[in-house]
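Example 249, ligand nicotinamide-adenine-dinucleotide.
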Amino acid sequence: MLRLQDRVAVITGAGSGIGLATARRFAEEGARVVCVDLDETTGAAAAAEVGGLFVKADVTSEDDVARMFQTAFDSYGGVDIAFNNAGISPPEDDSILETGLDAWRRVQEVNLTSVYLCCKHAIPYMRRQGKGSIINTASFVAVMGSATSQISYTASKGGVLAMSRELGVQFAREGIRVNALCPGPVNTPLLQELFAKDPERAQRRLVHIPIGRFAEATEIAAAVAFLASDDASFITGSEFLVDGGISGA
Ligand code: NAD
């Protein structure tokens, strides 16, 4: 028996990086996957590859978020797993002294408000079923901060972590588990884009990772599949670090 057999999973940011690797992993483990992305080309390709559904949605729009969970319910009869993962990297100079209010607000909107909207619209379906697993993508920087000046990004991920803990505690008795996934640096387009702007930053980061390399997206996907499955039945409200030891160094 596959661990996620016939579970209905909604994944945001499924067109690339961690979301794409997780869509593949969930499908391998038997889930029916709804791939959500703003990018129609990559999102639709991901859905086709995993034999799932594609929903084009902007996770900062409440109407779009409501529609994507409704589509999962109408097409597959429920919502068992929500992997709220879409996010953007920090603006170019994200120090407290340089980041403008518009850039700050944009990062909060895409990285934090989106998670609020996704939880708000996933939980009613899970409540009706009396079970569900929500995994919200935070980051290791939510736990330890970052010496590379990314104030809006770190603050947004800290919010995701606190919200996940709060919801994990609130809904534990209703069979809904909520966890914050905290990846270390992962070799995805988001990280590559960041390092392309500042190549020295990659080297500085690398020396602080005890395992000595960046993660592959498949290694993060394996952790998400675990959190989504009944193997994690006693894990809720946690900060689940998958960071090569960086937060402990
Ligand atoms: P990525 O850029 O490869 O993929 C992000 C996906 O989200 C893209 O397909 C993009 O189109 C989609 N997206 C962006 N804005 C959206 C919106 N408004 N609505 C719908 N979809 C949208 O990034 P990734 O590295 O896979 O990152 C995934 C998550 O992991 C993000 O939340 C990121 O902050 C987090 N994270 C990444 C790293 C890393 O090192 N890569 C480390 C820690 C946390």
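Summary: Residues 8-188+216-234 form a domain with the Rossmann fold fold (CATH 3.40.50.720).
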